[in-house]
Design goal:
The protein has 191 residues and is of the alpha+beta class. The protein has helices at 2-22, 30-37, 43-63, 67-79, 88-113, 167-187; strands at residues 118-128, 143-152, 159-165.
Length: 191
């Protein structure tokens, strides 16, 4: 029976860590988890267990481990010498937790990494002004680029922003985009 209780407590700890780290539930604190799940464990021992499980869960989530990767990772963790490894029971609990929560954790990580509002669509066209549209005046005008951006937040209706660029502004925009691409290439070269 003690093994079942230990497995439930560890499962609860992993769920609590995920609630705090991946689902932004501020109510789930380390103190709450100890009080509810590990009341008998000294504070220092609980802190070590909490940090170890939190670190392992972060490693697993950051790599978005598939079942084979997870098994290899947990096997390596059970073989570690000293205080950095996990027991077979802890590895089994981590495996069960990840298999059931992988999709939710991944969705949460993706949602946290998105900029809001997001670009949902973009359309553009180039218009040429005629003498009649300029009021009969000669000269000037030239082509005008019209850009419509569809922006939106998750679960909300889109908003539309219309932009108008003359040739000079288009060239300035293209130069800025080239500068951004050059900066990105310096950090993460294209393969």
């Amino acid at each position: 029976m003690a093994d079942v209780d230990a497995a439930k407590a560890l499962s609860g700890l992993l769920s609590g860590i995920a609630q705090r780290v991946y689902h932004n539930n501020e109510a789930v604190t380390e103190e709450l988890l100890q009080r509810e799940l590990y009341r008998e464990l000294p504070r220092e021992e609980f802190t070590l267990l909490h940090e170890r499980m939190r670190g392992l869960l972060k490693s697993i989530a950051a790599a978005d481990m598939d079942p084979a990767q997870l098994e290899a990772f947990l096997t390596a963790q059970t073989r570690r010498q000293g205080g950095g490894g996990v027991t077979a029971e802890q590895a089994a609990a981590l495996s069960r937790f990840w298999k059931s929560q992988r999709v939710r954790v991944r969705e949460s990580l993706l949602a946290q990494s998105r900029w809001e509002p997001g670009l949902r669509g973009l359309s553009w066209r180039v218009d040429l002004q005629t003498a009649a549209s300029r009021g009969g005046a000669g000269g000037g005008g030239g082509p005008v680029a019209l850009v419509e951006l569809e922006l939106g937040r998750a679960g909300q209706d889109s908003e539309f922003v219309c932009l108008e660029f003359d040739e000079l502004k288009v060239n300035q925009l293209l130069k800025k985009m080239a500068d951004v691409q050059e900066s990105v290439d310096r950090i993460a070269p294209r393969t």
